[in-house]
Amino acid sequence: MAIQISTAIAIYFVIWWIALFLTLPFGVRSQHEDGVGAPGTDPGAPILTRMKSKLIWTTIISAIIYGLAMVAYHAGYLSIERLSKLMGMPF
């Protein structure tokens, strides 16, 4: 049950991308909420996005999820046979 490096990178990238979209809305304040903003800009535009911290948190969260998934895979919980049986499909 070995995973090729390209498959592992692809799985991690998908998990990282989903985690990024989960972390994007946290901590964002719009110009309308703070009552400041440049003329001609959208009131819903963010003032400070804090992207560096969000990228760090995304990497941490996705590494934890990926690690748990690999432990479950190597323990046999995420095998094709087990997942097809759970979904009621013959293997």
From TrEMBL:
- Tell me which InterPro entries the record gives: DUF1467
Q: Does the keyword Transmembrane helix apply?
A: yes
Q: Which residues cross the membrane?
A: 7-28, 55-80
Asked if the Swiss-Prot or TrEMBL record annotates the protein with the keyword Transmembrane, the reply is yes
Q: Which UniProt keywords apply?
A: Membrane, Transmembrane, Transmembrane helix
Give the Pfam families listed for this entry.
Answer: DUF1467
Q: What is this protein called?
A: DUF1467 family protein
Organism, as annotated: Bradyrhizobium betae
